[in-house]
Amino acid sequence: MSGPLTGIRVLELGQLIAAPFATRLMAEFGAEVIKVEAPGEGDPLRKWRKMHEGTSLWWYLQSRNKKSIAVNLKSPDGLAVVKQLAGNADVVVENFRPGGLEKLGLGWDVLSALNPNLVMVRISGYGQTGPYRDRPGFGAIGESMGGIRYTTGDPSTPPARVGVSIGDTLASLHGVIGALMALLRVKTGQGGGQVIDVSLVESVFNVMESLVPEYDLLGEVRTRTGGALPGITPSNTYPSRDGGFVVIAGNSDPIFRRLMTAIGRPDLAENPDFRNNEGRSRQAAMLDAVITDWTRGRTVTEALDVLAAAEVPAGRIYSVADIVADPHYNARDMILEADLPGDTRVKMPGIVPKLSETPGAVRWQGPALGAHTDSVLADLGFDEAAIAALRQKGAVA
């Protein structure tokens, strides 16, 4: 069974998180992803966080199903190889600072002239245009300027970060969406290739809901509210008797009535002041206090059992240990076994989303640096002597 992107060739000219996560998603669904890395160094992600035999566990996940080719982009012969790869690709994904590829002679004007149907995803801090385009921008800056950090954390503490690189990931997802839309245009004969300009800042800003119109029309500046969802009541994180927390989302009208009945407050369930979200939000603090009194008298499990019986959306806050042990995660193949060097087996995340007819698959984990250099060059028509000559010149490794 082949993936829906089988036959699509993607050239990755990126490192670390944003561009590589985008191409990982494409590779999981059948695309041939050729990742260009610097000889001797490779993607810095190879050495980030926890390691196995000198290589990052994150690398094995982030680069699964990809082919690694070690090319010296400072070499004319190396650049010629990349141009040839781009000429045969459907998509190029890059996350250089704007102008970086142009300095190398690999800008859109050059590559699109070689391949008019090429789709080029360009991920950067601020986008390819505008007064901030030349500033360096990592995911942390995108999260800060995109608005999410201002709204994250407890109001009594400084703004917090989400525990993962959410800014990079959001940019990756927007890049994939843009690439697929542009590919559809090409493959259905509606037009040629184009640039997908993705900004880290704008990718975060795009998920900030009604932040702007609330400010513009009402002067409302949404800020940090801890575990609560402001203006949507009740939806919060509540403490339990055993020191844990229960997340309860009782914010639709019928669910609110079921929640109040389940916790022994039918008077609030029938109170006309709380028939809709607007009325409940006016007294959010009181309702949260009522729910907190109830959860404090129960363990997490006891509270969840009552809420499940009442069909109220609720859940415990999972650690990674909870995730790995959870039967639902395992039933949906969200925890997969993978082979690493040294005959080591390790659990890895599964694939999202689930496609019924052409599901994604893991064919191999992140490869060694330059593991596919020879095979990729051979596919381009280089024989053994020509590949050896490129190595002697320092163009590839």
UniProtKB/TrEMBL annotation:
Keywords: Transferase. One of its GO terms (molecular function) is CoA-transferase activity. The keyword DNA repair does not apply. This is CoA transferase. The keyword Coiled coil does not apply. Pfam families: CoA_transf_3. InterPro entries: CoA-transferase_III_domain (IPR050483), CoA-Trfase_fam_III (IPR003673), CoA-Trfase_III_dom3_sf (IPR044855), CoA-Trfase_III_dom_1_sf (IPR023606). It comes from the Bacteria.
